[in-house]
Amino acid sequence: MCCALKLREEGIIARQKIKILSIFGTRPEAIKMAPLVKALAAEPGIDSQICVTGQHQSMLKQVLDLFDLKADCTLDVMTPHQTLNSLTAALYAAIDPVLERVRPDRVLVHGDTTSAMVAAMAAFHRRIPVGHVEAGLRTGDIYSPWPEEMNRRCIDLGADMLFAPTLESRQNLLDERLQGRTFVTGNTVIDALQMTAQRIEQDADLRASLDQQFSYLQSGRKVLLVTGHRRENFGEGFLDICKALSHLARRADIQIVYPVHLNPNVIGPITEQLGDLPNVHLIKPLDYLAFVRLMQRAHVILTDSGGVQEEAPSLGKPVLVMRDVTERPEAVAAGTVRLVGTSPDSIIAGVNALFDDDLLWRRCSLAANPYGDGKASARIVDALMGRPVDDFIVVPALPGSLGTVGASLLAMDSRTPRSASRYAPSLTTIASKLAPTDRH
């Protein structure tokens, strides 16, 4: 009798678990979702399952292996020369049966990919609640980035839990009067970065093995790390980027490393324009461990990647962004990120300034990271479990000054009620410790 009662009780407990299905398909999504998925799996009240769409099949596996994750469901939706519309149709057709079979209590998606948008809409059509990780990012231009800006707006519109990485992204959501509950969590990519950087730091053999991958780098020459893959830069944009890099490659004091994205629209022009330059190292896409190590070794990073904009401040690396607008204005305000667009003259001037002006480089490298403290996943799990969640707050890097970002967040702090934080001190607490002249 006791055993039967125990089994019934265990069954009740099991049924009370929240079944959460995380759906993602690209390498950046996997990196940012990995620490959250691990936190979900460690939560006794959650039954966590993973569905990967395979939008970046080969690159995705690297991330899953790195973080010791296994997908419960793997889809195969990619075909050669696929349009966005055909990809969208394939994703709808593949994801809907998964929702029917798994019957999750909630779907989690990340960011702004086509996989995320379709997963969110498919869940909405089945009246399954959606949580959006990295909600509220906006450029104000639906064609930049394209199609990501429209994707994330659609997701935010239908999600009932919105996990905004910063106070500014939360304010974007409030301004749009969306129905979902909003939480300021920080960005999970900082969780992933800290986990990875700590692993590299603590393992000398791993560090040596990673450095062996970059044995072609010459000591005494600083590294310019380049990444680029955005659709809006396809064609003329990448040709302009190549012109700038060809010019910069003439500098004898720097060496350029470019892990080239596998998309034919990227690898084609990059290889054709830069493949024969001795000072430019075109390499295959790196796994996340190796890429973090390469970021650590870089002097300056030139990118169109959103994730790199978020990660670099934690590593003390100035970033030049090859876009005209960014949905991540916090790092621009903090001074660690500068927009240079794809104009060759602008890229050349931006890179030369950071390599030639040590004071400017130090100013950019010392800026606070406005995107996270490594505890975003814990905040999201707390929110999902109905526990109190305190907002992520930027702690200024330099004592005695809040800086541009800190000052703007302090103004927002007055209209953002919160309890005493378990995660970070509030800006009002920080401001109270500054001299009166520093607060005006």
Automatic annotation (TrEMBL):
Q: What is catalyzed by this enzyme?
A: UDP-N-acetyl-alpha-D-glucosamine = UDP-N-acetyl-alpha-D-mannosamine
Q: Where in the sequence is the signal peptide annotated?
A: none
List the molecular function annotations (GO) for this entry: UDP-N-acetylglucosamine 2-epimerase activity
- InterPro entries to which the protein is assigned, alphabetical: UDP_GlcNAc_Epimerase_2_dom, WecB-like
User: What's the Enzyme Commission number for this chain?
Assistant: 5.1.3.14
Family per similarity comment: Belongs to the UDP-N-acetylglucosamine 2-epimerase family.
Among NCBIfam families, the record links this protein to: wecB
Q: What is this protein called?
A: UDP-N-acetylglucosamine 2-epimerase (non-hydrolyzing)
- The source organism is Pseudomonas migulae
